[in-house]
Amino acid sequence: MTRRLAILVRHGDYEQRPNAPSALQPFPLTAKGKSQADAAGLEIAAFCKEENWHLSPVISCSRQLRAWQTAVFLSEGLRSELNLPAVVEESEELAERSVGALANLTVEEIEAIIAADPRHETLPNGWKSSSDYRLPFQGAESLQEAGQRVSDYLVSQMAALKETAGTVAKVFVGHGASFRHAAHRLGVIDFDEIARLSMHHARPVVLEVNDKMSWRRVHGEWKNRYPDEPATD
């Protein structure tokens, strides 16, 4: 019987515009982020060697530059340590929650636009981190909707992995909030855990899915988020 593992990796540290919902920001990794991505490749390779995991050569990532760069840098470690012919494939299904037409604006700019538009009510308190709130603009989605999109993609990709003796694993590089909400949709974390957990930059969290499509975390740690800590994902 084949064990199937999804290795979730949040992108590395990047040049994020302050106080802006981070979904589609087009900026690259910082030097720190590049080092984090390099380390992720070595960490995943070590998992594979120690546990005899068969790693898929296809690394899936979102289309945001920070995720693609993270995937590319970590793939180099997989090639050197595992002699794996790793390739990187982008997918929009792994994107962070979209704010649609308001992409890359700051929270203050978004709130001013809403206030100036007579069609819309004032934004509710805590709208940015609310799991169920969707901005009233074209292309926007809620965090729960983003989590459903990502979880559907993970399910389809894991189901398509080739049967093999032992354990087969696949790397997915994406974004913290949509990964956490996907984990909730898959039954890995409770709803009230979404807000108090985050993901470390470029540190793998490994989920196992069985033949009945039941998921559980088997390796790696979520990051605890403290009440006064600003949300950057």
UniProtKB/TrEMBL annotation:
It is an enzyme of class 5 (isomerase). Signal peptide: none annotated. Keywords: Gluconeogenesis, Glycolysis, Isomerase. Its EC number is 5.4.2.11. Pfam families: His_Phos_1. It comes from the Bacteria. InterPro entries: His_Pase_superF_clade-1, His_PPase_superfam, Phosphogly_mut1. Belongs to the phosphoglycerate mutase family. BPG-dependent PGAM subfamily. This is phosphoglycerate mutase (2,3-diphosphoglycerate-dependent). It comes from Roseibium polysiphoniae. The lineage of its organism: Bacteria, Pseudomonadati, Pseudomonadota, Alphaproteobacteria, Hyphomicrobiales.
